[in-house]
Amino acid sequence: MLERLPPAPADPILGLSEAFARDPRPDKINLSVGVYQDEEGRTPVLECVKRAQRRLLEGEETKSYLAIDGLASFRQLVPRLVLGHIVPVELTATVQTPGGTAALRVAAELIRRHFPDARIWCSEPTWANHPNVFQAAGLEVRYYTYADPTGVMLDFDGLVCSLDRARPGDVVCLHACCHNPTGLDLEPGQWRVLAERLRERSLLPLVDFAYQGFAEGLVEDATGIRELVRAGLEILIASSFSKNFGLYAERVGALTLVAQTSEAVQAAVSQVKAVIRSNYSNPPKHGGAIVATVLADEELTQIWEREVEQMRERIQRMRELFVATLAAKGVTKDFSFLLRQRGMFSYSGLSLAAVERLRTEYGIYIVGSGRINVAGMRTATMDRLCTAIAAVLEN
Ligand SMILES: Cc1ncc(COP(=O)(O)O)c(C=O)c1O
């Protein structure tokens, strides 16, 4: 039977990374893959993580299974990080998942099992894996307007209008902050309007929170979620700790539910556990234990907050340096929109032809859509990057 299987199409972004790895040019630059890099081009292990790991190594007594929903300390600490104190504890429940991807998948399976008529609405554009994950769980994916045709401006009226096409009971996947791929986020007032619209139309928000701390701050970045809570909505939140803890390979994330009664939240989380049991059974321990160790300890939390701040500020500096260097190279195309976008990603507005020339002639790797990982930029290589972009834009 296996002989009859055709090869699956390659993942477009990971395929680019493979091509990058094979490229022999020593001055090649990778702005395609979605990982944070520091000024030396490394994706470092955070200091708070190293310290937490030392403690874990000394104190660990067993490798026995975790519960289906993960570590108890993790489940208590994560909702405080995500929601602060605006929701009574008994109205929330969190399960530890293998990365944000699994949180999204578990949420999608929960919806599919219990609300088979619900469709899920994704932003146009969205993270390429959203439709994959949701369709794999059996959900029908629809799209709401998000960016204008250039991809560099938010189309909020379009967003609100396109949700008129949703049916009551449909699910709306929202990016809490640092929208991937556009870097365009909603203002607090827009979140309030959106929350009201979701409530009026009985739509369930599934909020993807993969970049908490990368836009403005750990607390500030939860503004949108808090507006949804204030509007009295039920919410599903898929957190990822891949970026803000640098724990990509450890696979740690969380699915948090907010309901209106403790009975509802308890029943819902029991169904979430039933979904998990038939999927990966229970989550891996190490990443969750690191996150819980850091969040439970004041000193480690402070170190972590500083490290998140440093990553966020470096990304912002790269945005500013990139725009200034392009201008200094005489590029007349206006790139100042990059300064209003937030997080690791931005749509650069570069055409497919420009992207291809950058790769073939200059060894600069950017996703075909023009999405760039700003966190892959470095002061040391900025001049070369902008010289190349100036050259391809000139022709
Ligand atoms: C928008 C978005 N959601 C979810 C994820 C998944 O994160 P994880 O690696 O924790 O599964 C990513 C990772 O790139 C992402 O960009």
Care to give the gist of this entry?
This protein has 395 residues and is an alpha/beta fold. It has helices at residues 12-22, 47-59, 72-83, 99-114, 129-136, 156-162, 188-200, 223-230, 262-277, 286-296, 298-328, 352-362, 379-394; strands at 29-30, 92-97, 119-124, 140-145, 171-175, 204-209, 235-240, 253-258, 345-347, 364-365, 371-373.
| Overall mean pLDDT | 95
Q: Tell me the span between the first and last alpha carbons.
A: 51 Å
Tell me the Rg in angstroms: 21 Å
The string of secondary-structure elements, in order, is HEHHEHEHEHEHEHEEHHHEHEEH
Q: Quickly count the helices.
A: 13
Could you tell me the strand content as a percent range? 5-15%
The top-level CATH class of the largest domain is Alpha Beta
Poorly predicted runs: none
The name of the CATH architecture of the largest domain is: 3-Layer(aba) Sandwich
- Order of strands, widest sheet: 2-8-7-6-5-3-4
Estimate the helix proportion, in percent: 40-55%
Bound molecules: pyridoxal-5'-phosphate
Structural class: alpha/beta
CATH topology of the largest domain: Aspartate Aminotransferase, domain 2
Notes on the protein architecture:
The chain has 395 residues and is an alpha/beta fold. The chain has two domains: 125 residues, Alpha-Beta Complex (Aspartate Aminotransferase, domain 1), CATH 3.90.1150; 232 residues, 3-Layer(aba) Sandwich (Aspartate Aminotransferase, domain 2), CATH 3.40.640.10. Helices cover 44% and strands 13% of the residues. The protein has 13 helices and eleven strands. It has a seven-stranded mixed sheet with strand order 2-8-7-6-5-3-4, sandwiched between helices. The protein has a two-stranded parallel ribbon with strand order 1-10. Strand 3, helix 5 and strand 4 form a beta-alpha-beta unit. Helix 4 crosses helix 9 and helix 11 packs parallel to helix 13. The chain is globular and about 65 Å long. It starts with 11 loop residues before the first helix and ends with a helix. Bound molecules: pyridoxal-5'-phosphate. The site of pyridoxal-5'-phosphate has 11 residues, from helix 4.
